[in-house]
Design brief:
By secondary structure, the chain is α+β, with helices and mostly antiparallel strands. The chain contains three helices and seven strands; from the N terminus they run βααββββββα.
Amino acid sequence: MSTAGFDYTLTRTLDAPVGKVWAAWTIADTYGTWASAEEVVLDARPGGAWSSVMVIPGGTRVPLTGGYTEVVENKRLVMSMNVPGRDEPVLMAVDLAVDGERTQISLSQTFDTAEDRDQAEQGSNFLLDSLTAYLATA
């Protein structure tokens, strides 16, 4: 993560054990279910790659690719995402902490501009809302 710039951190407590939350982020079929993604490929290990096609409201399909820079099972994922027009990939950290039978999750990112940060934060809130809804029914 960058040391300077515009950052955000979103933290929520999820009604699911940490292993279930970890699986939601690292098993392709599970991730696709809650993240509105298709053609999901996840190789959740340091140096591994991921790809998916996000289907946003209205049916627009957005292909995404990236990699994993840090993977600590049931604790931390740091993922990169390749963004057209940027020299460096954008990093997102997903941190998990056990809270009894629940899990505290934090998503954080740093950007060069407030506009990029605000867009990403909105997307991350959407992801966390989707994950929360999925875990309530899974």
